[in-house]
Amino acid sequence: MYKNFNEGMIEVITGPMFSGKSEELLKRLRILEYAKLKPLVVKPQFDSRFSREKIVSRSGVSHETFTIKNSKDIFDLLKKDSYKAVLIDEANFFDDGLVEVADELANRGYLVIVAGLDQNFMRKPFGPMASLMAIAERVTKLQAICTICQHAASTSFRKVSSKIEHLLGDEDEYEARCRKCHLKGEKAKQQNS
User: Is 20 annotated as a binding residue?
Assistant: First the structure.
């Protein structure tokens, strides 16, 4: 899976909410730990839905993490131990500086695995994710199941009325939808407002 990763590389795991991004990131983490390749695991301070100190998947799998405010804080954390990889969850909540940080880490020889939403609730590129996918050596785009038609879902539909881009939520606020059902839902919200 990570042949010659010592040369440094970036992998992005992306897709809509409920597609298993954190679960996939935690799977990569277990593989690295099994191979005795110590990973630094971080997530943004903003993400406090399930835990402040852990990455938690919807299936209940979790792992301790550092929560950071700024992506450049990763460089300070790397000084504390001999890490071989950097895993970043909920990368969409970081600013565009994460792109430069991930690129620099890969250039230094680190394996960088980033997970996050590729689109916001308006189906627009979310945070640094589009730029990270552009420079990544590997991109895994996951899909969920549309809650309306049960086809493959590639978007996160916001059920509540709010224009705030960074609105933390789960099943009460969001659902996975395919393009067609997402567009129908947005149209219905506009007609009801």
Answer: yes
Residue 175's H or E segment, with its range, is: strand 174-177
pLDDT, one tens digit per residue, over 88-137 is: 999 999 999 999 999 999 999 999 999 999 999 999 999 999 999 999 99
Q: Is the pLDDT of residue 28 over 90?
A: yes
Q: Which two tokens stand for residue 57?
A: 């998947």
- Name the nearest CA neighbour of 166 among 23, 49, 9: 49
Nearest-5° Cα angle at 51, 126 to 158: 35
Q: How far apart are CA 137 and CA 76, in angstroms?
A: 25
The pLDDT of residue 188 is: 92
Q: For 119, which DSSP code?
A: B
Domain at 9-142: CATH code: 3.40.50.300
d(CA 190, CA 72): 40
Annotated catalytic residue, options 33, 90, 171, 186? 90
Domain ranges of the chain: 9-142
Is 33 within 8 Å of 39 (Cβ atoms)?
Answer: yes
Record the pTM: 0.90
121 marked ligand binding residue: no
Q: From CA 69, how far away is CA 91, in angstroms rounded?
A: 12
Catalytic (active site) residue 90 = yes
